Amino acid sequence: MSPRSFPSPHPQEPLFGLDAMPRAGADEPTPPPGGAFRDSARARRLLAIREIHAEPAAAASPRGRQILARFPGARLIEVDSHWRIPELHGNEGSADDWMRIKRRTLVLGVKKTLTMRPNGRSADWIAPGPSNGCALSCVYCYVPRRKGFANPITVFTNIDRILAHLGRHVAAQGRKPEPNQCDPEAWVYDVGENGDCAVDALVCDNTADLVRAFREWPTAKASFATKFVNPDLLDLDPRGRTRVRFSVMPADDSRLLDLRTSPVDRRIAAAADFLDAGYEVHFNLSPVVIRPGWRDAWAELLRHMDDVLPARVKRQARAEIIMLTHNADLHELNLRWHPRGEDVLWQPAVQQTKRSQNGALNLRYRDDVKRRALGDLRELVARHTPWLIVRYAF
Ligand code: SF4
Fold first, then answer.
1. Which are the contacts of 221, defined by CB distance < 8 A and separation ≥ 6?
2. What is the CA radius of gyration of the chain?
3. Residue 137 Cα to ligand 1 middle (Å)
4. Residue 14 pLDDT > 50, yes or no?
5. Measuring from each residue's beta carbon to the nearest atom of ligand 1, which residues come in under 6 Å?
6. Is residue 24 very low, low, confident or very high in pLDDT (cuts 50, 70, 90)?
7. How many domains does the chain have?
8. CA-nearest residue, atom 7 of ligand 1
9. CATH code of 222's domain
10. CA–CA separation, 75 vs 59, rounded Å?
């Protein structure tokens, strides 16, 4: 096991005042010796669960009982469906309480429909995830769009069914017949499309169960993007079958847009520890937000990566480049709780409406603007981080 050279998350009361908003891992050197980070006082402040909305079957399941035992002081509220909780989802009043809800509320549900969607960009398949929603608060996040408003973490407690579904799918694929940009040998399954698996690991063992399952499947690999450095993941022994994609963006953008996340330099600093612990470590250059000075800011970030990342990380690193996707409803909502973020995200002069793969009507950079920006960013990567192979740019 590598030394844990990165800090633990450092939460305080993230209720009001975005300038005072804590960043996970701001100045804390290590997790408590010998103990799980998620049991530390700091982790419990980051996720101080006071209310758990649970479907009865989810609360009664082994995973549900494990979670309820972890938060014994939380009030249990029975709900018919994790999709319809009026005080959380679609409740305009909750915009003002965005941070408090994400920090203090948890939802437990049973994932009923298990589908495996072909992807071909970030991964070969988008797997049914172990959660939906997130305790972090990236301003551009698409995850709240379907449920509406704060969308705190919903943990799916039937992880055994999810794993069984995955196992059958992996077995049915057999060996990957030929390399593609997702991976030269393994079928890649994105297991964190609608949340952040590193944050979920503060709540329960769903992420650990996934990592352990994939290490037994030699033809497949799990993959998830994260903005949170959770040292507990270092103990899961993934044996190369899980790809962690640390999302990075220029520090100024991240401070404005990635609320409650680990600082970008901490994510980069953690890469070697994760590699040494058995993960494959890639980077998501995302989202790329076009604003005055964006090229210089990305050049600085890439130079920093080149300076601090050790050769062993560089040798295996790959990158995805993802331009910002925005959305009119999210814009309206963000204006109510974080209008400064919208100064850079909402740029109708260079954006156009587009129907996304999932059917949603979103706002993306105009084709000509995007083409030029992607070309510029690829040039910056070639100049400053020539070792970083771009798997795809979107
Ligand atoms: S970490 Fe990912 S899922 Fe969580 S708020 Fe940020 S973008 Fe959304």
1. 183, 186, 187, 188, 189, 214, 240, 241, 242, 243, 280
2. 20
3. 6
4. no
5. 134, 136-138, 141, 143, 195-196, 227
6. low
7. 1
8. 141
9. 3.80.30.30
10. 12
Q: Which of 248, 128, 243, 261 is nearest to 187 (CA)?
A: 243
Whether residue 378 has pLDDT greater than 90:
yes
Structural domain includes residue 44: yes
Distance CA 388, CA 394 (A): 16
Determine, yes or no, domain membership for 134.
yes
Map residue 5 onto helix, strand or coil.
Answer: coil
Name which of 32, 30, 49 is nearest 41 in CA terms. Answer: 32
Distances (CA, A) of 212 to 42, 125, 205, 234, 237: 26, 19, 10, 12, 8
Nearest in space to 285 (alpha carbons), one of 227, 338, 229? 227
Distance 198 CA to ligand 1 centre (A): 11
Predicted TM-score (pTM) of the model is: 0.91
pLDDT in tens, 109-137: 999 999 999 999 999 999 999 999 999 98
Question: Which residue's entry shows tokens 């979103």?
Answer: 362
Residue 209 lies in a domain: yes
Residues 188 and 182 sit within 8 Å (Cβ to Cβ): yes
Per the structure block, which two tokens stand in for 30? Answer: 């290590």
**Nearest CA owner, ligand 1 atom 3:** 195
Q: At what angle do helices 206-214 and 159-173 cross, to 10 degrees?
A: 20
Sign of CA dihedral 62, 65, 67, 70: negative
| 52-102: pLDDT as tens digits | 999 999 999 999 999 999 999 999 999 999 887 877 776 665 666 778 888
Q: What is the distance in A from the centroid of ligand 1 to the CA of 134? A: 6
User: Which amino acid is located at 381 in the chain?
Assistant: V
Domain holding 98, by residue range, is 28-393
**Which residue has the least CA distance to atom 8 on ligand 1?**
141
**How far, in whole angstroms, is CA 132 from its chain's centroid?**
11
Place 150 in a pLDDT band, splitting at 50, 70 and 90: confident
The reply to whether 23 falls in a domain is: no
Three-state secondary structure call for residue 121: coil
Q: What is the DSSP string of 176-211?
A: -SS--SS-SSSEEEE--TTS-HHHHTTT-SHHHHHH
